[in-house]
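Hey,
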Amino acid sequence: MYSLSISTSGKYISVAIHDEKLISSSSVLSENGTTNLLMKSIEEITNKSKINRSEISVVYLDIGPGYYTSLRIGLAVAQGICGSLGIPLVPVNGLDALAFAAHTGHRKICTIIDIKREEFAFCLYKPVPGGVVKDTEPEVLDAAKLKIKLNEDNDKKLVVGDWRSLEENLFGENSYIKLGSPEHVSSEHIYSIGKEIFKNDDYPNFNEVRLEYMREPDVSFSTKSLEGEINFYD
């Protein structure tokens, strides 16, 4: 069964096709993503994979947090594809995807995603056998509050996500803090969690999927025109 994974929440448009294992993927730097660029990336990996697009059985989507406009583009395209093919759309939280991909057995995992306006989505996780669990609820912090949060105790922490968007002195010389990978959400990270959600049949109808902005958007626009232009049949 082929699946398509999409992440447009940050500086990269990332797409991947899996059939249990990775078949093909693409990651393009694009801080202001466009529908055309996303559709072109999807077309490239389907052609490279030599599969018919109608063979895709499920779409996994990064629903944020992240850049408002980029997230809206990802949602519009994903809903258009799922509507055209009559397949499920499985939403995946980007903070969860980063934490699950971090690979640590003894440090708490601090996930950071840039949501613009000099603010960051933040969540703390702790590793457990086979995965991670939330240690705190997600919250929005500016750089000053994030520094306090990271240095409020001496627990060993692994910081992943958009930490390069922060000033280096934010982390100070705290030997308990380690900066690591992944540094951004990718479609492959989305797949890793999405496939488990799909297996458990724990997802809404494709047209009921909602994005997780975590704050008010900078701008607002309708996606109806985008959805109407997307026809994913060969």
